[in-house]
Amino acid sequence: MPHRIIIDQINTLLGNNRPNEALTVVYQAILDHPHSLEINTNALYLTLNMPPALCAQHLAQVSACHHVVGLETLTDKLITLFSSHPERYELFATLGNILCRLESADLAIKSFDQVLIAAGSADIAAKAIVGEYQATAASYDGVDAHQASGQNFVTLLAECLQGPRHRLNIVDAACGSGLAGPALRPWAASLTGLDLSPTMLAMADQTGLYDRLVEGDMTDTLNAMPESADLLICAGATCYLRDLAPFLAAARTWLKPGGQLFFADFPALDGMGVKETIGGTFRYCRSAALTREMAAAHGFSELNGILELSFTLPAFHWHFRKE
Ligand SMILES: C[S@@+](CC[C@H](N)C(=O)[O-])C[C@H]1O[C@@H](n2cnc3c(N)ncnc32)[C@H](O)[C@@H]1O
To answer: Does 2.30.29 match the CATH number of domain 3-114?
Structure first.
């Protein structure tokens, strides 16, 4: 049977709310056509709406159909299969997302790393960033992935937000539209937002949660505020920085001794790489070893480093303290 017809059959069963029968067809299809990109892609996309336990069960069944044991061997098999696919970015990003949700951090990073290209020498120009957010600001908060990413970030950030409320001087670097503001405000004696984009800052202003909003490059702005704060956060913006060193140096300057730094950063398997997004823009990605080495060199000790989804992709959520 042509693969397209099998997939139509699976979709019809799913549309008629018969998921178990759909899965039976999927498993038989993998047994019959183990090298089919279409069928394996379909099996992968089915996991996107599954809760982790069901997803793990499904992938175990997919492994059995491929006559392999374990998630690692299945990941390697899918990596080989997807490598020549024209939609490889989407496929590896999806596989990385699924593995991250299954808490298989090493495999998620390995899969995500397949889409990275060598990091060039040029920084992403501030002008391009401002232009990008001028175009997308109005719809930013309405995108599910942005809301979910913000939610994951503040859930992990909760560890930094302890002790008495209203005591911390907090900076939300690259605050964007202010999605982290509601989580930060109850802990803040003062809350400052920094961003390159005036359009995004205007949205943060509308939340009424920030005491101060500063337009400009976060590294430059932080350097101008020595030892004035307890907590610095940065969600979804270190990926614009080719070199993390100036940002870490500025964070060190800005934080009081014992102050905390919390940020999310896309991973690479080794060193660093660049990912090209579906929209054709670029983001820098770094290995855990590189970030740890740089943070230590700037006088930060690591409190935590967890891989969690950020903008639907695996991302390290780093928590450091200035020593
Ligand atoms: C993906 S958004 C994230 C916004 C917000 N932190 C959140 O989690 O919703 C990235 C933001 O980073 C800002 N940005 C990027 N590079 C920056 C830089 N060097 N300095 C200040 N802001 C920057 C952009 O203007 C944009 O508002």
So the answer is: no
